[in-house]
Design goal:
The chain is about 30% helix and about 20% strand. It has about 500 residues and is of the alpha/beta class. It has a 7-stranded parallel β-sheet, sandwiched between helices. A 4-stranded antiparallel β-sheet has the order 1-2-5-8, with no helix packed on it. The protein has a 4-stranded parallel β-sheet with strand order 13-12-14-15, sandwiched between helices.
Length: about 500
């Protein structure tokens, strides 16, 4: 295994793949380390003056806060974010779509819904409009044990989607609209055969408003605790309703459908320095394969593309797509300033321990999940995704909040890369967990589906790993359980983005 990795011809740093001791000579770089450098961290390839930019992946990742000598460790003690002009070059790298002939396209076994969309799972949902109905929803879902569900072999389960909001907020305005988009997206999600929408009755997030967004449907039922006559009566009637919905859901079966029906949410969490070298670019290869097959991939986490957004604007299919992305970046600058914060509060402590120093560095790795195809559209949080190919959805970087928006937008699969380790699940949508390094995969094999550490180890190429991710995505879409599904994750992770004041 190579001891160091230089990622771009113009780079000022190399990533060390094994720990480096003070005074250790590195023949491949013809230099000697003057600092102890942990694995995954950066080594200075040349002397860097105070205030000068530092490059990795041929891109600026920050500015030197002190004189840096050749062979020195570069991290938070001598590197910080600074402002600089990005060359947006809108559309300069956009290319005609290279779609496969439909006859040669990949396929999977999915659940075709009456509206033409396809589910990768077949759940019955109990969706709460407000925190006040959470306990009742859980009690309804708890009735449907594995023994009860064995009578419905085509159903993946009964899921209670609960949360901590829905009231104590303004009834109108963008925060209320955003929350309702989330609920409308979940209530009509193709991975749900049917949904019971359960409220208390007097909350801000009224059922009538949600039904107005979704439209009346025989797959959506509603109930409120106050109208039903309290907890016991609502649990009893809810159980009856779910039994009826299970009968309906069990009539659905998997059929062979084109991979163009996949809507893949892209996530990375607990990232390390290897994420942008192995797991993320390999996922980017899988995204390119999906797009060639006519499918859709959703990149999100706006604070985690900050400083790398110019790499996306260059691939924008139309100027207005790039302009919408830039507008979202400006909104986040104002949003964090209003709350007396900084976008560079991300990376998190675990990211920094893993070798990531600034948000600029983290963003360059995060953007590589998006592959190389055109950026076709930019959506607000939880908006319904209708455009094919690669799209972007505005969201925070916090994984549960971001993934909740993607699922509300229609994602029927999630691919989630991690370098430090993640145990995330996201019912009703399966989440494939991808490790950036072999040590993590071996340490947390119970939680990880795919190991991209073989790229770092030198036994697999990025292209080979990407093809494996695409194949695993099709298998999971066809019903293969992910590790997080086996472990029962996915109900508590529902986290809508809360922008409003609590009243």
């Amino acid at each position: 295994m190579a001891r160091v990795l230089k990622l771009g011809a113009q780079d000022d740093v190399a990533v060390v793949l094994l720990p480096v001791r003070v005074g250790e000579h590195i023949p491949s770089l013809s230099l000697t380390a003057i600092s102890e450098i942990p694995a995954g961290h950066k080594l200075a390839l040349r002397a860097i003056q105070i205030g000068h930019p530092v490059r990795k992946f041929n891109q600026i990742i920050g500015f030197a806060t002190q004189q840096i000598a050749q062979g020195e460790h570069i991290h938070t003690h001598n590197l910080m974010v600074g402002d600089f002009d990005r060359d947006y070059s809108i559309g300069s790298d956009a290319r005609p779509a290279n779609l496969l002939n439909p006859a040669a396209a990949a396929s999977f076994l999915g659940f075709r819904r009456p509206d033409g969309r396809v589910g990768t799972r077949n759940y019955v949902g109990v969706l709460t409009t407000v925190n006040c109905s959470a306990t009742v929803a859980r009690r309804i879902a708890a009735h449907f044990t594995a023994e009860v569900l064995s009578a419905y072999p085509n159903v993946d389960g009964v899921v209670a989607i609960t949360h901590g909001t829905g009231c104590g907020m303004a009834e109108h305005g963008e925060p209320a609209d955003l929350l309702r988009r989330v609920f409308a997206g979940y209530a009509t999600h193709p991975n749900f055969a049917s949904v019971l929408l359960l409220g208390l009755g007097c909350e801000t997030n009224q059922i009538d408003h949600l039904v107005a967004l979704t439209g009346a449907s025989d797959t959506l039922r509603t109930s409120t605790i106050q109208e039903q006559g309290g907890t016991t009566a609502t649990i009893r009637s809810g159980i009856v309703s779910v039994y009826e919905m299970l009968e309906q859901a069990n009539r659905a079966g998997r059929t062979l459908v084109a991979a163009s029906n996949l809507v893949l949410g892209l996530q990375c969490g607990g990232s390390d320095a290897y994420s942008g070298i192995s797991a993320n670019p390999a996922l980017g290869v899988a995204v390119d394969l999906l797009v060639r097959n006519g499918g859709t991939a959703i990149l999100s986490e706006t604070p985690e593309i900050y400083g790398a957004e110019h790499l996306l604007t260059r691939r924008s299919a139309r100027p207005e797509v790039a302009e919408r992305l830039i507008e979202r970046i400006r909104w986040w600058e104002e949003y964090t300033a209003r709350h007396k914060g900084s976008i560079d509060n991300n990376p998190q402590p675990g990211n920094k321990t893993g070798g990531l120093t600034t948000i600029l560095e983290k963003s360059l790795g995060a953007v590589s999940k998006a592959g190389t195809t055109n950026l076709n559209e930019v959506y607000l949080y939880a908006e319904a995704v209708r455009e094919r190919g690669l799209v972007f959805m505005d969201s925070p970087g916090f994984d549960p909040v971001s993934a909740t928006g993607q699922v509300a937008g229609g994602a029927n699969m999630i691919c989630f890369t991690t370098g430090r380790g993640s145990v995330f699940g996201c019912k009703p949508t399966p989440s494939v967990k991808i490790a950036s390094n072999t040590a993590l995969f071996e340490r947390m094999s119970d939680d990880i589906d795919i190991n991209c550490g073989a790229i770092i180890d030198g036994s697999q190429t990025v292209e080979e790993a990407g093809a494996a991710i695409f194949a695993e995505t099709l298998a999971v879409a066809s019903g293969k359980p992910t590790r997080s599904e086996v472990l029962g994750f996915g109900e508590e992770e529902f986290q809508p983005w809360l922008q409003s004041a609590t009243l």
